[in-house]
Amino acid sequence: MTTLISDLFTRFPYASFESKGNEYSLTVPPEKLYETASILKKNELVSFDFLCDIIGMDYGDSLGLIYRLNASAYPAYTLALKTSTGERENPRIDSVIDLWDSADLYEREAHDFLGIVFTGNPDMRRLFLRQDWKGYPLRKDYDASPEANPIPLENEKIEDMETLPVIDLNSDRKIEPEKLFEAGEYVVNFGPQHPATHGVLHLRVALDGEIITKIDPNFGYIHRGIEKMCEAYTYPQMLHLTDRMDYVSGPINRHGLCLAIEKGLELEVPERAQYIRTIIDELSRIASHLLGWGCMAMDMGSITAFVYGMRDREKIMDIIEETCGGRLMANYNVIGGVMADIHPDFQKKVKDFIPYMRKMLKEHHLLFTGNPIARGRMDGVGYLSKEKAISLGATGPTGRASGWRNDIRKIEPYAAYGKVAFDEMLREDGMTFDRYIIRLDEIKESLHIIEQLIDTIPEGAYAAKTKAIIRVPEGEYFSRVENARGEFGVYINSRGDKYPYRVKFRSPSMTLVNTLKAIAVGTKVADLIMLGGSLDYVVPCIDR
Amino acid sequence: MEVKDIFIRNMKTEDFNENEYLEEYLKELRANGVNIAIAKLDELINWGRSNSVWPLTFATSCCGIEFMCLGAARYDFARFGWEVTRNSPRQADVVFCCGTIVHKMAPVLKRLYDQMAEPKYVMAFGSCAIGGGPFKKSYHTVMGVDQIIPVDVYVPGCPPRPDAMIYGMMQLARKIKLQEFFSLSERDVADRAHRMEAVAIGASENSQTEEKGGEQ
To answer: A136: which of A106, A240, A442, B155 lies 20 to 30 Å off by Cα?
Structure first.
């Protein structure tokens, strides 16, 4: 792989390279960005076909972008393609929307936060903030005073939502603004407050009869500006914000952030803490999948399944509460380990839970999986091919249901995952039923992981000693963990201070909504809710 | 009716906190005396109303998951007659405001509240809904729903446990039991209008609307 990459890099004489372990970085001038990205995607040596994230940066004197690329054939290696432009008034970068399907929302996000315009992307509306919002919040000179942007009293205008702003390349030419929907199209609003959208997601759906022709997701109804807030917080202070992003798998997110900071500090985490972290992660994965399963079943009209799922989830909540102190918000991981040692009853309760959950899983299958009505709705609906899944960046169970091996626990074993034997659940068909059943299979596999660890938790400290004031050395740190929904990535840019310079979270749910946009076209409107349930996105994680 | 006479099933009056607030509220309501015949009828109606409050499902983030737990098997708020969650504001009596409200969501919440029929109540669940909570430093968070709509009961926590939510609901039931249904249209609405005015003044102070600028 290393020779392949160095071979590939010889094609970019204008670029500068760096490498650190499995992480490569490539810096190019902005006018060469599209050319480089195109070669990286389309070459015959290593095709970087998965665009993991686009990180917008404000370096102070210039604005920059970092494209995190992965090759699905060599998932352990990551490439950061960097570019920056000194233009702050009118920054323009070429769009890569035709190379990766996931680029669409990422570019809109960078535009929303930093005001970078992507030439070639026809949809340059703001993604999270209202279209009439003043300023770009992630710029360092942003005016955050409430006077600049008072609480709005009126809803956003529909015209604002569906008019694509015109980017005039030649300012003397007047162009008519483009509409997202045509005049005669029948548009239905789903949300922003609708119980089946799994949070406050606003979907605008164009229909032909009851067939969906186009979906336009509208985010930002729970955008809290977590990334900007992190810049004003010290490292231990910002940990609690990650629990509140994807709240159903909060401990895993927090684990990801702790890993990134520990990488920066080069801190050795005690083995006991690693075991405890792994067990808590797997417990919350089970809790999350149970909730996802129950909600998907409820979206299809089976309230019984929801009640069953929540009943079993309460058992996990009890275990987590006893050890961590919180039910939903565990607030358990800290830099260098965990907050407190496990409760004396922890091992016993977990060991009681494993056979109970196995028994209940059989009941869940009996109740819902074999149900002819459920099968009739799920089979053959919402096909997602492997290539499309990679291009959309649909990581996690969704991608694995289409046959894409993307489990970070296998690719880059963190914590105690390297010490246990478990299988990466994989299915080939990519239908709604596969996305449904893979979650129940993953619960079984998680129980298997916990079973191997629970009796062998080593003695020792539960957290490494850290300094009172934590200063992360200057540099850039990436980490990624396998969230219940997919790859949760953390990027920290530190300037050696006790506050981070920039923090970016890669939300797995954002690409899942993009996936919904792709797979729901052509299906019936009644299936939209079920498809959303099968992707199991969490909206506050998207909005951050 | 005295505050100590309010009968809430499964919980004694002395176990409740915040009795002073209710006593003051009662004093305010009874300032002009009570019609005895109507008062008895009020008690009967309020008994019915307080035991079948229909919530509007309005969950924006984390607290919504605890709200789901509240509806599921273990905590089961159907025991108190609150289980008929409505998705239309026109059929709901109380907004369960679970989660952070941000700038983009604020007009949506205001509109939902305006669409509800009187008598209507608002419960703010969790620190975000009370005062911004952990997102106090954010540029996009509304620092508490009481900046947009009047709130009847605040339930602190991040997120509050389902038990705390049940306690908050019982507090609202006590408040409902004190009210005079027949004269509600005059007095309670006036009270609400007064509070709304306070909210509007607060909002205009924050945003310095054109109106205020015109006065100067």
So the answer is: A240
Q: A160-219: per-residue pLDDT in tens?
A: 777 777 665 554 444 556 777 777 888 888 878 776 667 788 888 888 888 998 888 888
Our count of domains for chain A comes to 2
How large is the C-alpha radius of gyration of chain A? 23
Query: How far apart (Å, rounded) are the C-alpha atoms in residues A536 and A528?
Result: 12
A146 and A283 share a domain? no
- Kindly determine whether residue B141 and residue A327, on different chains, have CB atoms separated by under 8 Å: no
Residue A516 sits in the same domain as residue A441: yes
Q: Same structural domain for residues A268 and A151?
A: no
Cα atoms found within 13 Å of the Cα of residue A202, Cβ hemisphere only: 21
Q: Which of A310, A503, A542 to mutate to test the interface with B (most CBs of B within 10 A)?
A: A310
Best B56, B67, B139, B143 residue to mutate vs chain A (most A CBs within 10 Å): B139
Contacts of B135 in chain A (CB under 8 A): 224-226, 229
* Residue whose C-alpha is closest to residue A478's, from A331, A262, A239: A262
Interhelix angle A235-243/A250-265, nearest 10 degrees: 160
Q: Which two tokens stand for residue A385?
A: 């091919």
> Do the domain assignments include residue A207?
no
Identify the sign of the CA torsion A338, A339, A341, A342.
negative
Same domain, yes or no: A249 and A148: no
Question: Residue A58 sits in a domain of what CATH number?
Answer: 3.30.460.80
Instruction: Give me A504's structure tokens.
Output: 């970016």
Query: Which CATH number belongs to the domain containing residue A458 in this structure?
Result: 1.10.645.10
A363 found inside a domain: yes
Check whether residue A371 and residue A516 sit in a common domain.
Answer: yes
| Minimum Cα–Cα distance from A154: chain B residue | B107
pLDDT-based confidence at B39, cuts 50/70/90? low
Write down the pTM of the prediction.
Answer: 0.85
Strands annotated E in A89-210: 92-94, 117-119, 163-164, 178-179, 186-190, 202-208
Length of chain B: 216
Residue A279 lies in domain: 226-542
pLDDT at A355 over 60: yes
